Amino acid sequence: MQIYTIASGSAGNCTLVRDGDTAVLIDVGISTKRIVTALRELDMLPEQLDGILITHEHGDHICGLNTFIKHYDIPIFAPRTVANHLSWSIAGVDDYLTVLPPGQDYTLRGLSVYPFHTPHDTPESVGYRLKGSSVFGFCTDFGHVTDEILEGMRGADAAVIEANHDLEMLRNGSYPYYLKRRILSDNGHLSNDACAELSAELYKYGTRKIILGHLSRENNLPSIARKSVLGALNAEGVDTENGIVLEIAPENAILRLIVEDESLC
Ligand SMILES: [Zn+2]
Ligand SMILES: [Zn+2]
Q: How far is the CA of 218 from the centre of ligand 2 (A)?
């Protein structure tokens, strides 16, 4: 399985997962032009995509969809409330939409797709677990870790986890009070500390490759996010030099992560 974060953060999100001859995007929060350019860099055409999984209705996750569907016939998958939002906000999207109820597996060619609810300031939002030759968990845009998230993410070989902000940077930063409150709320975004705790928990259940995503440009730094997570893993006795791959998803560049199928080794 290959995971490529194409864009990550509040300016736009898009991740490609390839496994065998199956390829899916998670979120389309960047322009069609950028997606096509990124896919070309990876020797792929948009027509080769088998589906697009949408996490929630915020613009940084769906703003490219309107143009994308005018050019490409790719099935789009989303939970009910998100699908309803897309349906009334994007003309013509109904032709491509399939509702995926959270808490159930869905087969999308060579991948089993399992959406699970995440607590965020939208009527509905989800993360996804994808199972093919490996298991991949994707979870960004959530204010705190719930049992549903743990259930969805535990056992993943590789994961993208939100590390949105450093608490001190956010508290002392220039954001207006209402926005700080929103981000810090249970339905906001995940702090480095909470991400670190979740990363250590997932490690216990076998996760060995972690990408930190959706970092705030204002309230975080890759070095700080990395330090928080490494600190939590060290505290659990993890050999962070050899025992784990920890990457940071760049805001505007492709990050590639290969997840080996252990059974083939
Ligand atoms: Zn977002
Ligand atoms: Zn969001």
A: 16
pTM: 0.97
Return the CATH fold of 2-264.
Metallo-beta-lactamase; Chain A (3.60.15)
For residue 57, the CA-to-ligand 2 centroid distance in Å is 7
Cα 67 to averaged position of ligand 1 atoms, centre (Å): 19
Measure the CA–CA gap between 234 and 148, rounded to whole angstroms. Answer: 26
Distance from the CA of 9 to the center of ligand 1, in angstroms? 6
Question: 265 pLDDT band (50/70/90 cuts)?
Answer: very low
Q: Report which bound ligand comes closest to the CA of 12.
A: 1
62-94 confidence digits (pLDDT tens)? 999 999 999 999 999 999 999 999 999 999 999
Which ligand is nearest the CA of 61, by number? 1
Nearest listed ligand to the Cα of residue 8: 1
Q: So where are the chain's domains? A: 2-264
